[in-house]
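Lecture notes, unit on binding sites. The following record was shown on slide 14. It pairs a sequence with PMT.
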Amino acid sequence: MDLTGRKIVLGVTGGIAAYKSAVLVSRLRHLGAEVHVIMTKNATEFVSPLTFQTLSSNQVVTDTFQAPEYWNVEHVALAKLADIFVIAPATANILAKMTAGIADDMLSTTVLATKAPILAAPAMNTGMWTADATQANVTILKERGVHFVGPDSGMLACGDEGAGRMSEPETIVGAICDLLNPRRDLAGLKVIITAGATRERLDPVRFITNDSSGKMGFALAEAARDRGAEVTAVCGSVSVPVPEGIRTIRIESARELYDVMIREAPQHDIVIQAAAVCDYRPAETQSTKIKKAEGQPMILTLTENPDIARAVGELKQKGQTLVGFAAETDHVQKNAKEKLKKKNLDMIVANDVTAPGAGFNVDTNIATLITKNGSETQPLQTKRQLADVILDRILDLRK
Ligand code: PMT
């Protein structure tokens, strides 16, 4: 990653995550960037402007300070200077102001005036993030081309748990580098990715399912999209929004996923199967709600679902790269290697779903990438970072 000579304007708004932005400035400077910080009045309550001034080696602009003389022009000087405009942390308030075009302080004025790409790293309480108003603002801003990184999920400063944590500085740096130096190494390739869990219906109100939020599959879809691929996501039940700019096919059951993949997979250069597919389904699906039989145990007969990855492996096309995932709790690598062979995959990504920070629902993962030539264990990192590593290795395999 190299940002030598790149001019980054960082808007810091009022939230406890502002302290992480100090680390962000330090990292950006280390990569060679010229960083200019604008703080809102509330941000200065959390971190002193002197911290950012020291780390950036530039005057910090706040509403309480005079614009430095070397700017020599009006309040939009930084708007014109920016190669990229980053807002981290971005509160619900600044997102709302940006949506409405309100310019009532230095940050909102400058961001309104800029023509540079804008990257927002939201940080707020879960209730504020999921509020209809905030989500509507985010949708509008995305439609206008504003880029977002995060928020991540986890324990928040207010004690609540859920989405709203600002992404880690490393992740924000990665997003800045991707925007300033976009890699287009997947341009011209068609990639299909399965994500989320299948649901196998017992009756109109009940189903059995697997765990899966869709985060790993969508991280892959986003990374492949950003690197220039034409991406199709085939998704079952997911708990996060489908990324923008991706063709989406919705499925519910493993048999629906099978039908889609048999039809679609042969037309794609790269097939990545991150979905958590139920190996079994109820032998019968009732058309009306099964009534409770008081005091009686309910005995459920399950029947085997098709092995989709195996069927796709049997149809493998010349020049096609097939990647599967293995969600394991024990004998992780041994079980994954067997799946690699049985399903005719080029690579399998084994994750121990019992390891803290790995597997289902979380924003991070720990995985071992296994091919017939060997294996490589990747440390704990965000699913987006792991997605880029997986795509790098896929490209290596295709050389
Ligand atoms: O969605 P997240 O919350 O981010 O969680 C990510 C994840 C843990 C779901 C993901 O990283 C993962 O491991 N996905 C694979 C889950 C799984 O079903 O593993 P498996 O070991 O049971 O299956 C092995 C492979 O065969 C997978 O590629 C699976 O898609 C495929 N499969 C499984 C069963 C089946 N009947 N047909 C299949 O094609």
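Take-home: Residues 190-281+299-398 form a domain with the Rossmann fold fold (CATH 3.40.50.10300).
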